[in-house]
Amino acid sequence: MKRNIIQIERLSKTYKDGTVALENINLNITDGEIIALLGPNGAGKTTLISAICGITNISSGNVSVAGYDVIDDYKKTRALIGLVPQEIALQPFEKVIDVVKYSRNLFGCANNDMHIEKILKRLLLWDKKDKRIVELSGGMKRRVIIAKALSHEPKILFLDEPTAGVDVDLRFDMWELIKKLRADGTTIILTTHYIEEAEEIADRISIIDNGKIQLTENKSELIKRLGKKVINIKLDQEIDIKVFNGDFDLSQSPDKTSISMRYTDAKKDNTLDKLLTRIKKEKYKILHIETDEKSLEEIFLDVVGK
Ligand SMILES: Nc1ncnc2c1ncn2[C@@H]1O[C@H](COP(=O)(O)OP(=O)(O)OP(=O)(O)O)[C@@H](O)[C@H]1O
Ligand SMILES: [Mg+2]
Predict the structure, then answer these.
(1) Which of 16, 253, 257, 304 has the fewest beta carbons closer than 10 A?
(2) Nearest ligand 1 atom to alpha carbon 15
(3) Domain stops at, among 166, 199, 224
């Protein structure tokens, strides 16, 4: 059994203006996992991260990191954490390498040029190391922030919207990087609005809405339990779905030559096979079949009720 590296008990947070951002959050994060926090705008994700990092006051409850309380032992817990914040805040005229080195020193770590070189190379920033921040693109700045967060070799990395505004290629590179960090033993907590990002890299998913955790579950179990898949079948002629007597969860394209079936992904469920057999029996020819794999996205939309 892996131990919990972060424990959150009955955490609530109300901002000064009365906004209730978090309400009775209970969550344990396992050492070495990647957990994705999903939720619509304003759900409370950034507030939750800020509470764990000890950079916002909490109204009630307890949060501990590696057994240390985030308020009483702030210095200890903060040193274990690397934070990539949602908003980019960098000094425009500083050099990339200095930003990263300086951040390491801020945490009281001795210089380690090898480590700095390693992370800059990993983030494909080595050839930009002497550039000033103003000379970088948005995606490069995001990577500098990640390098900065990794400068003091944290055990835990928070990534608040790491790939917002990042192009597709770079997003794939970031996913690879995140997986590598996990392989090195880093625990990763990320928020994202790209459901496929969570589907691709997370071990567990926690869905937050309106300041409350709606569910936390192992990703594959969640998808197995609640995921619906859609299969689209194009036929050689118009079809009237009434011929199936409501036996399947079907819908029809406007031109009536395609049907779509929603089905669950359970192994023993042979709905798909039954549907194809029926289509053949009705003497239709199948021209094309495609499946839609947006299973986690559907679960998310069901849970947050949008
Ligand atoms: N400093 C603040 N003062 C008052 N209210 C705040 C403050 N920061 C955030 N809030 C409010 O707290 C709630 C949660 O905000 P938070 O930034 O945690 O959401 P989020 O899930 O990170 O959203 P997004 O996906 O847009 O980043 C929102 O209603 C927000 O308006
Ligand atoms: Mg946020």
Answers:
(1) 16
(2) 4
(3) 224
Within this chain, do residues 267 and 286 fall inside the same structural domain, yes or no? yes
Evaluate whether 264 touches 229 at the Cβ level (below 8 Å). yes
Pair 155, 261 in one domain: no
> Residue 186: CB within 6 Å of ligand 1?
no
Using CB atoms within 10 Å of the CB of residue 164, give its burial: 0 to 12 exposed, 13 to 18 middle, 19+ buried.
middle
- Report the range out of 126-140, 235-249, 258-272, 286-300 with the highest average pLDDT: 126-140
Q: Which helix (H) or strand (E) holds 106?
A: helix 96-106
The answer to whether residues 304 and 209 touch, using CB atoms and an 8 Å cutoff, is yes
**Residue 143 in contact with ligand 1 by CB distance below 6 A:** no
Q: Give the CB-side neighbour count of residue 16, counting CA atoms within 13 A.
A: 2
Long-range contacts of 279-283 (CB under 8 A, 24+ apart): 279/233, 279/235, 282/239, 282/243
pLDDT per residue as tens digits for the range 280-298: 888 899 999 998 765 787 7
pLDDT digits (tens, 9 = 90+) for 237-260: 998 888 888 888 898 888 899 999
For 60, phi then psi, to 5°, come to -160, 165
